[in-house]
Each structure stands twice: as structure tokens, then as C-alpha cells.
Give the backbone structure.
Amino acid sequence: TQSRSSAASDVYKRQSQDVAQASIDAVATACKLSRGHFIRAFRDTTGMTPYQWVLSQRIERAQTLLLTSRLSLAEVADACGFADQSHLSRVFSQLKGLPPGAWLRGQSQG
């Protein structure tokens, strides 16, 4: 069975994706493009989908907070729009190749 926190995290992710969908639709409309055309044009221009770009911006913000604040990982996750610390760690590891704590330790050694 799925734990309550896992179920809540799944709901949060779906809602976040729904918000991202609505935002993409709004930007596409403002650009007078269809949603699909906007996503293709965005990907052709940036090399990533709008959602991937948003995640990369969140991770950049997380890196800044990790380096410049005394916030816990859970607080950084919350400040950057992640569902929880686990979600931040998973995305951070996917994009940077290391979990946040290991990355931060590497920054202080280098």
C-alpha cells in the first residue's frame, strides 16, 4: 500500500504539473501559438521542455540557497517549490549527478 506521505507527494506533483500546464497554456496563448507549437519552439530554442527548464531553475535556486543560507534541505525544498526534501534530492541528483548534501560538501572542499 502507498504511504500517506507518498500519496500526498503524488497529489502535489499532479497539482504542480496541472499548474505548469495552465501556465504553459497561458504563455502559449500570449504568444499566439498553440500549446504544442509553443513547447516545440521552446524546446528548439532552449534545448529543453518548459517543465525541464522550470526544474533547472528550481535547482539553480536550491544551489544558491544551499551555498548562501543556513536553511535545512527541507526548507530549501519548500522555498524552491519541491514537494518535499526527497523530491528535491531526486531531481537534484538527476540534474547534477550528486545529491544536494554531497554537492554542497564538494563545493566547500573546492
Notes: DSSP finds six helices and no strands in the chain.
